Amino acid sequence: MDDPARALKEMKPRKGFFIGIDSDGCAFDTMEIKQKECFCPNFIRHFRLQAASKYARETWEFVNLYSKDRGCNRFIAVIHALDLLRERAEVKARGVSILMMDGLRAWMKRESKLGNPALKAELERTADPDLKLAYEYSIDVNEAIERMVFGVPPFPFVRECLEKMEKAADVIVVSQTPGEALEREWKEHHIEDHIRAIAGQEMGTKAQHIAFAAGGKYPPGRMLMVGDAPGDFQAAKANKACFFPIVPGREEKSWELLHAEALDRFFAEKYEGDYERKLTAEFDASLPERPAWRK
């Protein structure tokens, strides 16, 4: 079977620096519309949560938008949201049975490329009903996104940052969105020429994307991940890379700061240290770990 991540692994440095950029909620203001209009309705429908739809929606939005799990892989999000729902008193009071999805959990433990191609291959091999449900859900989400999400431009200052980045850095997209959607969105707004590669969920985790494309090819201080979720920070630090946060709710100001100040610091190799720690501390404080109903 051909390696989906081969293009990343075979990438050769052309510039002295490397920058990875997340897409949904980071470069594009698409998190709210995708999660609320595409993911959540299909989560409720496929996992039979109609009788607890109010709580299913609240839980889904907490996991995917308003918590430290923001930006996680779609299948990880399903499991986490189901587990949170299972413990909620309101859901128990309504007698709603929450699926365990043991087949999906087992697949996720043995597979790192948590995307539809790998899931489809495993489903064809095992015919596991949990994998069938997860695959149908994921396909319907993709179709909903294709119908619903268009005409959403990059955040202000994204274009200016990309133009500045490409002069000194090899830039790639690092995302857990399917590659097909990423290609469509970056091409729709004519910014794909600023980047060397688009890495979606089919190529592995975000940490793997950075490792494949940049590991051992650039000094750690010359590697930067730009993201809006704690998972982006973790992917950066797993590769000893710097991290610049796009703070949820303050995206425009974050991109303006990156353009006006932070990129210059990064290219001058004066980004690490107190400056980075201050930004990441502010970012960490912006997203809660525990949902309000647990307090």
Q: Please describe the biggest sheet, giving its number of strands, its sense, and whether it closes into a barrel.
A: 5 strands, parallel
CATH architecture of the largest domain: 3-Layer(aba) Sandwich
Mean pLDDT: 96
Named CATH topology of the largest domain = Rossmann fold
In what order do the strands lie side by side in the largest sheet? 3-2-1-4-5
β-sheet strand percentage: 5-15%
Which H/E pattern describes the elements? HEHHHHHHHHEHEHEHEHH
Q: Shape, please?
A: globular
Number of folding domains? Answer: 2
Total DSSP E strands: 5
Extract low-pLDDT stretches. Answer: none
| Secondary-structure content class | alpha/beta
CATH class of the largest domain: Alpha Beta
Query: What's the end-to-end separation, in Å?
Result: 48 Å
**Helix amount, in percent?**
40-55%
- Count of helices? 14
Can you lay out the helices and strands and say which pair or pack?
Elements: H1 6-9, E1 17-21, H2 31-46, H3 53-64, H4 74-86, H5 89-93, H6 102-110, H7 116-126, H8 129-148, H9 158-165, E2 169-174, H10 179-188, E3 197-199, H11 206-214, E4 223-227, H12 230-238, E5 242-245, H13 251-267, H14 274-285
Parallel strand pairs: 1-2, 1-4, 2-3, 4-5
Condensed summary:
53% of the residues lie in helices and 8% in strands.
Give a description of the structure.
- This protein folds into 2 domains: 156 residues, HAD superfamily/HAD-like (Rossmann fold, 3-Layer(aba) Sandwich), CATH 3.40.50; 118 residues, no CATH class.
- Helices cover 53% and strands 8% of the residues.
- Strands 3-2-1-4-5 form a 5-stranded parallel β-sheet, with helices on both faces.
- The longest helix has 20 residues.
- It starts with 5 loop residues before the first helix and ends in a 10-residue tail after the last helix.
